[in-house]
Write a structure and sequence with these properties.
Length: 107
Amino acid sequence: MIQVSPHPEKAFSGSNNLNIVDFARICKALGHPARVRIIQHLRSMDGCICGNIVEMLPLAQSTVSQHLKCLKNAGLIQGNVDGPRTCYCLNKDVLERFRQGIDELTV
């Protein structure tokens, strides 16, 4: 039987890691293939992308916007308004802290 910690806000043991609630929020955000693909695409571009995310996915603009919102709410990406467009970048700090949490689970 799985036992849930009585302190879900407690961080992983590393001083720079996410707390468990934020870690779970990121896991949930990555639970859709389109969102994983967006993260992969942003990582491959190694910078911010303004407007061409919709072209790389076979999804409607509104659907892509919902996925971007989910990723942004989880802290995985940052969106900066640039005139009529929003430019999206990976939040590399959060991704690194998430990776450290994964490492802690697998050790």
